[in-house]
Amino acid sequence: xxxxxxxxxxxxxxxxxxxxxxxxxxxxxxxxxxxxxxxxxxxxxxxxxxxxxxxxxxxxxxxxxxxxxxxxxxxxxxxxxxxxxxxxxxxxxxxxxxxxxxxxxxxxxxxxxxxxxxxxxxxxxxxxxxxxxxxxxxxxxxxxxxxxxxxxxxxxxxxxxxxxxxxxxxxxxxxxxxxxxxxxxxxxxxxxxxxxxxxxxxxxxxxxxxxxxxxxxxxxxxxxxxxxxxxxxxxxxxxxxxxxxxxxxxxxxxxxxxxxxxxxxxxxxxxxxxxxxxxxxxxxxxxxxxxxxxxxxxxxxxxxxxxxxxxxxxxxxxxxxxxxxxxxxxxxxxxxxxxxxxxxxxxxxxxxxxxxxxxxxxxxxxxxxxxxxxxxxxxxxxxxxxxxxxxxxxxxxxxxxxxxxxxxxxxxxxxxxxxxxxxxxxxxxxxxxxxxxxxxxxxxxxxxxxxxxxxxx
Length: 457
What we know:
Blueprint: H1 10-15, E1 45-48, H2 54-57, E2 59-62, H3 126-141, E3 148-151, E4 158-162, H4 174-186, E5 193-199, E6 202-206, H5 215-229, E7 237-240, E8 275-281, E9 290-294, E10 300-309, E11 316-323, E12 326-336, E13 344-348, H6 352-366, E14 375-378, E15 386-392, H7 396-406, H8 409-422
Parallel strand pairs: 6-7, 7-14, 10-12
Antiparallel strand pairs: 1-2, 3-4, 5-6, 5-15, 8-9, 8-13, 11-12
Helix pairs in contact: 4-7, 4-8, 5-6, 7-8
């Protein structure tokens, strides 16, 4: 189902938060459509955290996650058979478990619920109503199923509507409610801070839910801390993953077993939005291709079967194969030596906290810091230590713009979790088994439902 991003329309600026096509009926921040419920597929890999509390946390099941806006593989010809395109952005069919606002589902086992919807009393603006009606007529001629209600938040009056009480899956329009709530609860100037700390003989990275942490951020932390670290040896590199409980994948993300970047997993410490990027580089005819990988580290192993051939054309791509607590990347195919393109593959990371630990370990070693231990992630909050360096995110207002302009699933899910942390300040360690039943934006008209949040945040 095609849906126009109302956040970019002139109605959004005129009347504040717009109700999406229909009403908010989904319990997810990014809310891709999910297929009817079936038996859960066997997970392809698991990361076991012995110190994670509760049955839900004993194993963080890493199925595979969503984020299609990023670039697809590029080469002078089509991708290899069986390769998925991370840029496709396809959505799953509607999930009948997604209830209407009167009773949103509270987790994976929620029962069907579809109470009747009541349309707001109309107080239509003739000019805007005419625009909406014209747009609706054009779209519906193309077979689009449409439901729109434009509501003035101050008065609750319906400014314009077309089948406004029709219950539809809002899909990525759900991001409007998530980001609006984040702006109200956290504030547009809110920034996330990530730190590198010395705790005993270990170096601890605390992402603190920063959704904009990148490989470049890790390099900045190490560059800043290098003088303080000196030539003394250190033991382990530890990523603090405490604070988020439950599965790393939002509800419904496990319905697709693909490595598409739009299905990226969340966590307290995730770099590069839970993805990796590998660029295939040319060498000489007959030789293996070269490659460059971000983020670095031995979380990834490379099986390079790519070859250079004469001419401009070739078919080359990258496949992922999961191994215990790591991912193997298989480069397969041929690249023409005269090709003008450098094929780039962006895919999701199965174990983002482990990938972050491995990347920091590699960057520290490259900087000449001596390490005798391993890179690992823990779910019991390490003791506070000496802060060696910190990095901060852009203001929330800029992050929200990216969420809605790009329809960025990862950022939306991370903001949803940040709201959960905000609501439970002071817990030690901070646990987020649930969010309040209604994460509501103040002054929303009575008939405009803001989604409840699934308990496994």
